[in-house]
Task: structure prediction
Amino acid sequence: MAANDEPRPLHFIRQIVADDLASGKHGGRVVTRFPPEPNGYLHIGHAKSICLNFGLARENRGGVCHLRMDDTNPSKEEQEYVDAIIRDVRWLGFDWGDKLFYASDYFDRIYEYALDLIKKGKAYVCDLTADEVRDHRGTLTEPGKGSPHRNRSIAENLDLFTRMAAGEFPDGSRTLRARIDMASPNINMRDPVMYRILRAAHHRTGDKWCVYPMYDYAHCVSDAIEGITHSICTLEFENHRPLYDWFLDALETPHHPQQIEFARLNVTHTVMSKRKLLKLVKEGLVRGWDDPRMPTIAGLRRRGFTPESIRDFCERVGVGKNESLVDIALLEHCLREDLNKRAPRVMAVLKPLRVVIENYPEGMVEEMDAVNNPEDSSAGTRKVPFSRVLYIERDDFMEDPPRKFFRLAPGREVRLRYAYFVTCTSAVKDPATGEVVELRCTYDPATRGGGAPDGRNVKATLHWVSAAHARDAEVRLYDHLLSAEDPDDAGEGDAFMSAINPGSLQALAGCKVEPGLAAAAPGAFFQFERLGYFCADSEDFRPDALVFNRTVGLRDTWARAQGRKEPQARG
RNA sequence: UACCCGGUGGUGUAACGGUAACACAGCAGGUUUUGGUCCUGCAUUUCGAGGUUCGAAUCCUCGCCGGGUAGCCA
Result:
C-alpha cells in the first residue's frame, strides 16, 4: 500500500493534479470519485480506475475519493450489484469513509437544476418519438434539424416538464432536451436528451420518479454537487466533455470539475465489457460472476489473486491516452512476485504415482523438517511425515528419459525434498496397458534431510507426500477463458464467443496433499512446491472435501523447453 | 465522408528542446535441497515526408495508420 514511499513517474493525470495543486485551482483540494453503474460486477479494468481515483486521493494530502453509484437507469440496475461493488472496492484495499453516494440521492436537485435550465431558455420539452429524434439528429457528416418544439415558451416547457414528472404522459412520449446546436459537428451537442419518461421501479427511489435524467446531464451535476475537482473517465467520453462543460456553465454551478479522460485497460485473452461477461454468466459458460476464470474482481479473488498484486499491476500498466492491450503475463508476474514472498510452501501431488522404498522399514514414520518459506525466515518450519510408501508426480518419472530430463528414471538417483536420496530400481507396469503404476526404489539412510555426507549430488529434487498420511483433494486447473489474444478483434457483438477455450477448466480428482492442508482456511493461499500457487476454494473447500484452485503456475522452463503441446490447463 | 483523440522495442510505459530508458515477455549463462526465487548478460524502439532549431520522440505543416462518436445506455 505504498502511499508516498517511492518517487513515481508522474503520469499525465498526476501531473494535472500536481499543477492544479500548485496553482490553487480548486482551492488546493483533490476530490475524485469512482462512479460505477450498478449493472454488473467490477472487473480488472475497473480496478485500474479504482486505483487511479482512490490513489490520487490517497497520495495527495487531504485528498478524498467518493464511491458513487451511477444509478440513473432503473431498468438495468440492481441491489446485488451495489453490494458486490462495495465488497470489491473494499477488498481491493480502498476506503471512502462516509462518502458513499448514489446519483439517485440527487434526483431532487437534478430536477430543480433542470427547471433552472428551462427558465433560462436552455432546455425544452420535445414531443418527438425516439425515431423522429434520431432522424432530426442528422448524421456524422450532415447537420441535424431543429425539433418543431424547440421554441416552445418557457411557461409551456415548465408546465409540460412538471407534468412529465407527475406521470401525465406515457413512457417515451416526450423528453426534456437541452437547447444547444443542432448543427454542431459534435453530435453530443445536438440538443441532447436530458430526461426520459420511464416507469420502472428504482432500486432506491422505488416508484417516486417516472422521469430519469440521462448520464450526460446527471453526471456533471452530480460531480458538481459533490465538489469533485477531477472527474476522471475513459476515452469514449472525450466527445462528451464539451457537453459536460456546457451544462455546468449554463447552470452556473458553484463548482466546475475538470473532466479528464484516460485509456481503459484491456488485457490479453479476456474481454472487459459487462455485456459480454454477463453473457458468459447467463449462458453457463462459467459458474458465475466469481468464476475463477473471470476477469472480475470477484473472480480474481476466488482464483487466489491478492489485492496487492492487482494494485501493483494497475500501477505498472500506467495511465495514458493510447488504446492498449496489456499482456496478461504482466498480471501473472505481479501475482507471483507477491506470492513468492508470502505464500507458505507445501507439498502436493497432482497426478500421483505410487513409490515404495523397499529398504525402508515397514511401519516406520519419520517427521521431516520442512521450511515453510525460503523467502521469509520468520515463516519457520513444519514437520512432514515420511514413510515407506509415497506418492510422487507422474511427470517426475520417465522410463526412457530424453537427454535433459533430470528427474527420476530407472537406475537414477534423485532427492526427495527434505527427506532422502532415493534410487529407482524398477517400474511396475499394468500388464494389460503397459502403464507404469508403481515405482520400486531404495533410499540412502545417510542422506536424511536431503544432504549427502559424501558430497555427491543429484540433478533433481522431487516433491512427495506420504501415502498413509496424505489427504485426497480436488484441484482445479485453469487456462485462459478465451484462447485468442485479443478476442474483441474477432468482430462486433458476440464474435468473441468463437474464442472460448473449451479446456479452460480442468478439475483433477484424487490429488494427494500434505496432511496439514486439511486445516487450511477457505481462501488461504499456498505454493505447492514445484507446481505453482494455489488457494483453498472460498466456496467449495471443506475440511473433509479439500478443493484447491491453481491461481498461477510457477515459471516452468522445463515445460517450456519441452514445448508442451498437451492440451493441459496451464497458467 | 464530419468532428475528436492517439501513434516510442514483441507488449506496456518513461524521457517535459540536449546521450532514447524502465518493466514484462523472449533468449543465453551463473547460483540453488523448488527446472521456483535471485544474479549476470544479449537481442529488439521514436509511423512517414518536409520545416523550425546549434540540437527534435518532443515544436509546426502535410500525409499515413489506429481508435471513438449518429441510445429516450453509461
In short: The CA atoms of residues 165 and 209 of chain A lie 7 Å apart.
